[in-house]
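Entry for iron/sulfur cluster complex. Fields follow.
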Amino acid sequence: MTGAPQPSVSDGSEQTVDFSIIRERGQHEVFCGLTSIIWLHRKIQDAFFLVVGSRTCAHLMQSAAGVMIFAEPRFGTALIEERDLAGLADANEELDRVVARLLERRPDIRMLFLVGSCPSEVIKLDLAKAASRLSQQYMPQVRVLNYTGSGIETTFTQGEDTCLAALVPELPRETEADPASLLVVGSLADIVEDQFTRLFAEMGIHEVRYLPARRSDQLPAVGPNTRYILAQPFLNETARALEGLGATRLPAPFPLGVEGTTGWLRAAADAFGVDAGLFDRVTTPGIERAQRGLSHITEELKGKRIFLFPDSQLEIPLARFLHREAGMELVEVGTPYLHRQHLAEELAMLPKDTCLSEGQHLDKQLDRCREAHPDVVVCGLGLANPLEAEGMTTKWSIELVFTPIQGYDQAADLAELFARPLMRRAKLRV
Ligand code: SF4
């Protein structure tokens, strides 16, 4: 989807970053927040995501997810028809009917998200009110929440942020007797979550919870004894909401590559008083495995020039990994929003002459990209095909959100995601 001009960025941070940053506002090319349903519905296994939107929204969901033939999908669209847009029908009554039908047919649903879209915003449908009305009707069997995935307000990973921020008020509160706990915030593939849980347990950190939890009856308790660590860099609203409940953020890089994973684990270990020797014993096997895996792939990447368009907000941690562990040259690192506080550890590891850009003016950025003619371009689906047609090698940024890339055992897979298109291009040339 091509969106409207981007809002200006304010993260409330006092920290300064001594990079020269290109700040642009204009046409941008990025999917809306509805797209995040594709990975969120796999993560929260008893939730259903009901998009309150138009046929365009339904088509986006269907093409982004592919058609599910064997599984009953856990997302759908309550269609806003022209009659609703013209104010000729009571959209709330229709929504209630759709929800009643859905919950009758799917008794396995425990949590229902009403997901706002551009059309629901245009007709000013109050989904917060609808969620509270429906919750009263269906609790305790089904909890009904709402958040926005509209392209007017969100880019694709921000959909996860608004979803998790909507979950925070529902989290149980810690009691005074509860021990200090670690909360990992941001969707991770189950396999990655299990690896991290194992590593934390080996360090003696047993009170580890995840947001989102896999099931709605496993929501983690939060309070002043909660130390939370972000696993994804796009969760500003969620972080703010957790801090509102007294939780404290552990500053850390993001767990991409060996360095990022070690820094991330160390931040948690330090907060829980893990002895340095024990930390090294627990992490060394993973570090060695990751370095062995990376050594086979980074030859393909060394010295190659990469240009990252602003899309997923993963760009800065990715750039840090690709530069420091795979030897790539950074031509331009774009990000839709730059949260200086959450990214402070990442920015400190980037070369000081990195060309960073925040926001987007699509035409100007395309001009810079064409002029630089990098070896690899990381961008959204909408840009990839035209750029490939111009002879550039591209990587879809959305793949980086769908694929398990965090942690030691995924470091080589992460590098391979960038090496593969280069190898394919080289074969085509031959
Ligand atoms: Fe398009 Fe808006 Fe629907 Fe997203 S929410 S698919 S941008 S109409």
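NOTE: The longest helix spans residues 276-301.
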